[in-house]
Amino acid sequence: MSGASPCWRNRVAYQRLVRKLTKENLWLYILSLLQESPLYGYQVRDSIRERFGFNPSRVTCYAVLLRLRQAGYVAMERTERGGEGPPRKYYKITAKGSEMLDKAKNYMRELGQTL
Known about the structure:
The chain has helices spanning 6-21, 26-36, 41-52, 58-70, 95-114; strands spanning 39-40, 74-79, 88-93.
């Protein structure tokens, strides 16, 4: 790989940075969305795509939601079958989750200023 052109290496480095700051830190995006309003599982992925412009898999979203719930950053509320559609599990951010999101935002802001 030492013979690779600098342009190719720069593109790969940038793509890796984007992947690390999006899909590998999905919890930031999920908490950010949940701070605005509770969402059910299917809405999370669609909201990420619409607002942030990337497509994590549904399985990954649910896995991250589960870990956030286990850590106490997200709570789940079940809704019973009402008018239309099946019962849903709505996820909402907890006070602990809001604190973690604020801490992460501050870190990102400081990092941006430092860079």
